[in-house]
Amino acid sequence: MSEQLLTAINDTFDPWRPLLAGDPLYVDCKSVRGDADIIRSLGNSILRSSNNKCHLYAGHRGNGKSTELLRLKQHLESKGCFVVYFDFYK
User: Fold this and answer.
1) Per-residue confidence of the chain (90 residues) as pLDDT tens digits?
2) Entry pTM
3) Which residues, other chains included, contact 48 with Cβ-Cβ below 8 Å and sequence gap of 6+?
4) Is 39 in contact with 88 (CB distance < 8 Å)?
């Protein structure tokens, strides 16, 4: 492979840049990383709670945590929630 191609591949798959909700590059990987649907499980927990809660969403770098959280943010906002999303890596 050429250096130019390797650079293009590296720039395309940047683990520090999450995909925005609705991005056509999103690939649903539930079949290989577990069948949990963050919007359904975590979203419903947040929407149905009558008090404040703290949730931990963890995983290896580059496996889609921020992308899933941005999808959750969009879902919660569509339900009338005010969501604050902090991105520490920019």
Assistant:
1) 789 988 887 777 766 778 888 888 777 777 776 666 778 888 888 899 888 878 888 887 777 888 888 989 999 999 999 998 887 765
2) 0.66
3) none
4) no
